[in-house]
Amino acid sequence: MGELLRVESVSKRFGGVVALDKVSFSVDEGELIAIIGPNGSGKTTLFNVINGILKPDEGRVYFLGRDITGLPPYARVRLGIARTFQVPRPWPGLSVLENIAIGALFGSGGRGLGVAEALSQARNIIRVVGLEGKAEVLAGQLTAPEKKLLELARAIAMKPRLLLLDEIVAGMSPKDADRVVDTVRKVRDEYGITVVSMVEHVMRVVARFAERVIVMHQGRILLEGSPHEVLRHPKVVEVYLGVAP
Q1: Residue 6, beta-bridge partner list
Q2: Sheet strands side by side (includes 32-36)
Q3: What is the mean pLDDT of residues 149-177?
Q4: Phi-psi category of 129—alpha, beta or left, where left has phi over 0 and alpha has psi -120 to 50?
Q5: What residues pair up with 28 in beta bridges, in sequence order?
Q6: How many angstroms separate the CA atoms of 105 and 126, rounded?
Q7: What's the Cα-to-Cα distance from 51 to each of 101, 121, 166, rounded to whole Å?
Q8: Which residues, in sequence order, are bridge partners of residue 163?
Q9: How many whole angstroms separate alpha carbon 210 and alpha carbon 165?
Q10: What's the whole-number mean pLDDT along residues 217-222?
Q11: 7 to each of 27, 46, 63, 101, 104, how far by Cα in Å?
Q12: How far apart are CA 7 and CA 68, in angstroms?
């Protein structure tokens, strides 16, 4: 499998605060990657740089070998980068089906797509994420876990090559979190989507979801490796607990 994303020596400052300090890593097609780290480690800033909300002060971002550092978010969506947000942002007055269809219309496969075909694709994705029976329900009436699944479904409908998940299981019960992890793995297998997920503190989810873990601390990459290697590493334990193990 080839390289899909490359972040090269990216730095970002907010006044005197260094949020990212020469961060470099790459993502291959088909990977499931978790980016972890305590609050303030730079995870959200990194996601915002990858999907174009922020432009780095230094460094470059490459997608499928193309330099996308200066492209706005909507252009990156068209190239195949989709993102969910920690706080779901559905159109509350539209149905679940309509919300997902909008993703299909404006994603990387949306050019020339008709509304009927977008709705058809949305029905298939509803099945994949387990929202059967909710198609005609207004998005504003969903439970919090269901809104997370809708956020995921809408991103899938964009037909991305790379999917960035922003705290997708935050605030969920263990049962609901497991359901989301199983859904994300199914999405990777059925749609061939590479997934990079930002996770703060739910290490059990990291162990179930990720094939590779990147640990951030104070704007830098502290460590990366398999979940078994990373989650047991003394440096990672120290960063999260504040004391050496």
Answers
A1: 26, 62
A2: 81-83, 162-166, 194-198, 32-36, 212-217, 220-225
A3: 90
A4: alpha
A5: 3
A6: 16
A7: 21, 24, 12
A8: 82, 195
A9: 12
A10: 94
A11: 9, 9, 9, 31, 27
A12: 10
In degrees rounded to 5, what are phi and psi of residue 107?
-85, -165
Residue 234, pLDDT > 90, answer no
* pLDDT tens string 79-114: 999 999 888 889 999 999 999 999 999 877 666 678
- The C-alpha atoms of residue 74 and residue 113 are separated, in whole angstroms, by 17
- Count of positions (residues) in the chain: 245
- The torsion defined by the Cα of 167, 23, 62 and 156, in degrees rounded to 10, comes to -10
Token duo for residue 100: 């997902």
Give one DSSP letter per residue of the chain, joined into a string. --EEEEEEEEEEEETTEEEEEEEEEEEETT-EEEEE--TTSSHHHHHHHHTTSS--SEEEEEETTEE-TT--HHHHHHHTEEE--SS----TTSBHHHHHHHHHHHSTT-TT--HHHHHHHHHHHHHHHT-TT-TTSBGGGS-HHHHHHHHHHHHHHT--SEEEEESTTTT--HHHHHHHHHHHHHHHHHH--EEEEE-SS-HHHHHHH-SEEEEEETTEEEEEE-HHHHHT-HHHHHHHHSS--
Residue pair 101/118 in contact by the 8 Å Cβ criterion: yes
Amino acid in position 177: A
- Note the Cα 143 to chain centre separation in Å: 21
**Residue type (1 letter), 91:** W
Which amino acid, 139? A
Backbone angles phi, psi at 198, to 5 degrees: -95, 125
